[in-house]
Amino acid sequence: MNAHEMRALPRSGLKLTALGLGCSQLGGLYRPMSSADARALVDAAWSAGVRYFDTAPYYGYTLSERRVGHALALRERDAFTLSSKVGRLMRPDASVRPGDDGWAEPLPFRPVFDYSYSGVMRSYEDSQQRLGTSRIDILYVHDIGAMTHGDRHPHFWDQLVAGGGLRALAELRQSGEVRAIGLGVNEWEIAVDAMNEAPLDAILLAGRYTLLEQTALQPLLDHCARVGTAIVAGGVFNSGVLAGNGKFNYADAPAEVVKKVQRLSALCERFDVPLPAAALQFPFAHPAVVSCVVGARSVAQLQQNIAWLEQHVPADFWAALSNEGLIAANAPVPEGGA
Ligand SMILES: NC(=O)c1ccc[n+]([C@@H]2O[C@H](COP(=O)([O-])OP(=O)(O)OC[C@H]3O[C@@H](n4cnc5c(N)ncnc54)[C@H](OP(=O)(O)O)[C@@H]3O)[C@@H](O)[C@H]2O)c1
């Protein structure tokens, strides 16, 4: 697998590089990132052949979109693919403080959920302005679902389905303004529900199809493969524990996760395979997975991630991973080499 390999979304024909740059870190997730470092990261991704960039209005309360737009401004627009998200309108708010929602240096805008027709259209137009482009290739509905909204989920689901949010996306897709529509979520259940409401081109599924959990396999991924909905795998390190930072789902990893990581690490040591390399390569074995968007904190992390993705991992390792029950019995594994 080469990071710069182009892979098509079956329903739209849009192509993504196997590795996409996840840009929540450019919004200062937990720790600040300077503008110069953000620029250097996007430039390094470009030099390595990465041509897919994922951002959202929420990341850094608009900071990530501004930085991504600025960093890509002089690039040929047809040469890269950009995804952003809808569902939160960013309202000016002088009370925003460093650390709000985990953003180290948020800009003074506060998110207000809105999945309605007008909310989606407004969000899309605001993103175009911040990104400095007339074209956003993929629009994902961001964080719809009970995990984010709890008791309020039925209200926001109603906005999306009956209130016209999905219709707005379908219109943008139909007119050719955006090339692909879908969901960007941390829970697979809501993606199944959404696919019952409308045909989706892509689902950015974060943290739910990784070496640590494959619960999304049969209900979602296999169905996506059948109907041609692409999976863009996000959070393949489960926010970092599989790359060594101790975080799982953006919090300190609980004991059972640490134990599972230790078992995976022991297997990796036996075969002399870096755990993050296995974590990056594993999702690609599923036919629905088109691209992995990986968040990097620095140019060094990005380059390491490319090396991990492209590293040879022997077939015996993948066989042992299955045979020793470390992943679901029916989860496909990469073919690997001899
Ligand atoms: N709902 C959604 O649509 C949704 C949800 C989540 C993610 N996403 C997208 O998916 C992208 C990736 O997800 P994610 O960043 O949350 O999770 P992730 O890719 O699983 O983890 C990223 C973290 O792993 C660590 N890491 C990465 N490369 C490393 C390396 N080479 N060496 C050591 N540590 C390394 C870094 O942790 P440290 O920062 O601690 O160094 C980094 O912040 C996001 O940027 C976003 O674009 C979308």
In a few lines, what is going on in this structure?
This protein has 338 residues and is α/β, with parallel strands linked by helices. The chain is built from twelve helices and 14 strands. The mean pLDDT is 97.
Would you kindly provide a written description of the structure presented here, covering whatever features stand out?
A hairpin with a 6-residue loop joins strand 1 (6-8) and strand 2. It is globular and about 55 Å long. It is built from twelve helices and 14 strands. Helices cover 38% and strands 18% of the residues. NADP nicotinamide-adenine-dinucleotide phosphate binds at residues 22-25, 54, 140, 142-143, 184-186, 204, 206, 234-240, 243-245, 293-297, 301, 304-305. InterPro entries: AKR, NAD(P)_OxRdtase_dom_sf, NADP_OxRdtase_dom.
Descriptive keywords:
alpha/beta, TIM Barrel, globular, binds NADP nicotinamide-adenine-dinucleotide phosphate
List the helices and strands and how they pair.
Layout: E1 6-8, E2 15-17, E3 19-22, H1 35-47, E4 52-54, H2 63-72, E5 81-86, E6 88-92, E7 109-113, H3 117-131, E8 138-142, H4 146-149, H5 153-161, H6 165-175, E9 180-185, H7 188-197, E10 202-206, H8 217-227, E11 230-234, E12 247-248, E13 251-252, H9 255-271, H10 275-281, E14 289-295, H11 299-310, H12 315-323
Parallel strand pairs: 3-4, 3-14, 4-5, 5-8, 8-9, 9-10, 10-11, 11-14
Antiparallel strand pairs: 1-2, 6-7, 12-13
Helix pairs in contact: 1-2, 3-6, 9-12, 10-11
The chain binds NADP nicotinamide-adenine-dinucleotide phosphate (NAP).
Residues 22-25, 54, 140, 142-143, 184-186, 204, 206, 234-240, 243-245, 293-297, 301, 304-305 line the site of NADP nicotinamide-adenine-dinucleotide phosphate.
